[in-house]
Amino acid sequence: HLQLVESGGGLVQPGDSLRLSCTASGFNLDKYAAGWFRQAPGKEREDIVCINEGNGTAYYHHSVKGRFTISRDSVRNTVYLQMNNQKPEDTAVYFCAADADPICYTGWGQYWGQGTQVTVSS
Fold it and tell me: Can you give the chain as a three-state secondary structure string?
């Protein structure tokens, strides 16, 4: 049974940092493309970052490039999203995703976590 479980969401102030975690069970996440989507109220879900298998190339949405960083821990079977200098427009439900294709592609995302809320507000 393949499962992704996110953690680490919460309420932060503008300019603060937060780290999300996504731990996989039932499969080796390191062999999959993986990353994060987010969905703000009233908006479509958007792909914010995808990383190729292992510690391959990562592809960031322009709105988070330079502020967010994705990384993997193969021992913990986990991917992380380090979010720095957060802005109110980062407020959304963040979803972890993985794909059996080891290379990111448009429309990727076979397996999904349940989502975790991130709210950026003063």
Answer: CCEEEEECCEEECCCCCEEEEEEEECCCHHHCEEEEEEECCCCCCEEEEEECCCCCCEEECCCCCCCEEEEEECCCCEEEEEECCCCHHHCEEEEEEEECCCCCCCCCCCEECCCEEEEECC
